[in-house]
Design a protein that fits this description.
By secondary structure, the chain is of the alpha+beta class. It is built from 16 helices and 10 strands. The protein has 2 domains: about 160 residues, Phosphorylase Kinase, domain 1, CATH 3.30.200; about 230 residues, Aminoglycoside phosphotransferase (APH), C-terminal lobe (Aminoglycoside 3'-phosphotransferase, Chain: A, domain 2). Helix 7 packs antiparallel against helix 11 and helix 10 packs across helix 14. InterPro entries: Aminoglycoside_PTrfase (IPR002575), Kinase-like_dom_sf (IPR011009). This is Phosphotransferase.
Length: about 400
């Protein structure tokens, strides 16, 4: 209740900021400014953030292209520098993500995710060797919940093609993704720097404060019944208890590392040279490794492929993870943990297809059905609820 009252008050404050922004439409000019959108940037602001360590460099002009909206507003930037900036090789093909809409600010700010991507690119990305975009700047305004993350435009710089969630993924591609996760996880395994991040239990409570996620998951399970294994029909209460238990295990029982947090197959890409990587680091958090592993494998693989590959994929993940000075789990320990960590992915997609009329449509119905079929089949195949000791009758 306390969080809901806080969010109500913050909503009024954020709404007031948006009203003023719509009238004044301030443009970002100095480094302390947090832009409203890519369209309110200026060469002065880009000079301040992109040329801050290069003496004499200056942004002469820029243009925006290929805009889109979702949980953030996205736009590509093409930047032109003076001779000093060009000679220094400063980035010319960038991508900006901003929170321009009220719903974006409440979702990310209310969930304490407003600085997630900013923090990842600023504090964590430089420390890890993995396939992910490079970040150049990030900032968030605590009053208005305006935010910006300025990063590499990997479509232009690496020839990246973003994964189509409804298409099958190849065996080599999914292994590259789980090895990528392992490189991330081993870098930040019990690392003191991750203590500033939220954990899965906190994130769940933030979601629940903003919306009745449990009810929306029950609605989503009914809407997706045609693709859900029969054994899970009408089991929304039991599945929800599994979600809570799985997130508690990821928070309290497993060694913490840095998690992507929302690594479904639609958040991945393939570069021109065949490397697989992850985008959209807004939900970055600290918690148990299998939260990411289970979400990636179960959302990405068609059921028959997952059945054939998941043992070997887990072995590949553990191989890349390494010994961790004796702290790495054995295969048997990791397999049980994987089985237990399949539930959050179910909640994320049941909630999405089970949205109320006032919620934004974040994904197509077909994508929701495809991913729910993959994820719930994995839950059934692995008896994930039994592995979590969730009784059959509640």
């Amino acid at each position: 209740m306390h969080h809901k009252l806080w969010l109500l008050g913050r909503s009024a404050t954020v709404g007031g900021h948006l009203l003023r922004e719509s009238v004044v439409r301030p443009r970002a000019r100095v480094i302390e400014d947090v832009p409203i959108s890519g369209e309110t940037l200026t060469p002065q602001w880009l000079t301040a953030v992109l040329c801050r360590t290069t003496e004499g460099a200056e942004v002469l002009s820029f243009r925006t292209e290929n805009g889109s909206k979702g949980t953030a507003t996205r736009v590509a930037l093409r930047v032109e520098y003076n001779d000093a900036g060009t000679e220094a090789g400063l980035p010319t093909e960038l991508f900006a993500k901003t929170t321009t809409a009220f719903s974006q600010r409440i979702l990310l700010g209310g969930g304490k995710m407003i600085e997630g991507e900013t923090r990842f690119f600023r504090d964590f990305r430089p420390l890890v060797e993995m396939e992910a975009p490079i970040g150049y700047w990030g900032a968030a305004d605590p009053g208005s919940w305006r935010s910006i993350a300025l990063m590499e435009d990997i479509a232009a710089t690496r020839g990246a093609v973003f994964s189509e969630p409804n298409a099958p993924i190849g065996r080599d591609q999914i292994e590259d993704l789980v090895r990528n996760l392992a490189r991330l996880h081993r870098t930040f395994w019990q690392h003191p720097a991750i203590s500033v991040l939220n954990d899965p239990n906190y994130m769940l409570q933030a979601y629940l404060a903003a919306i009745d996620m449990k009810k929306r998951c029950a609605v989503g399970l009914r809407r997706a019944e045609e693709v859900v294994p029969e054994a899970l029909h009408g089991q929304s209460e039991r599945l929800w208890r599994g979600v809570e238990r799985a997130l508690d295990i990821a928070t309290t029982d497993l060694p913490p590392t840095l998690l992507h947090g929302d690594p479904h197959i639609g958040q991945t890409y393939r570069t021109a040279d065949g490397r697989m990587g992850f985008v959209d680091w807004q939900v970055v958090m600290r918690g148990g490794w299998a939260h990411d592993f289970a979400y990636t494998v179960n959302s990405g693989c068609e059921p028959e492929d997952r059945r054939a590959w998941d043992h070997d994929l887990l072995k590949a993940y553990l191989d890349e993870l390494g010994d961790l000075d004796g702290a790495a789990p054995s295969f048997d320990e990791a397999w049980l943990t994987y089985r237990r960590q399949s539930l959050f992915a179910y909640a994320a997609w049941a909630f999405t297809i089970g949205r109320a009329t006032y919620q934004p449509k974040m994904q197509s119905e077909q994508t929701c059905l495809t991913l729910l079929q993959r994820i719930t089949t994995a839950i059934d195949d692995h008896d994930s609820l039994g592995a979590l000791d969730i009784p059959a009758s509640v």
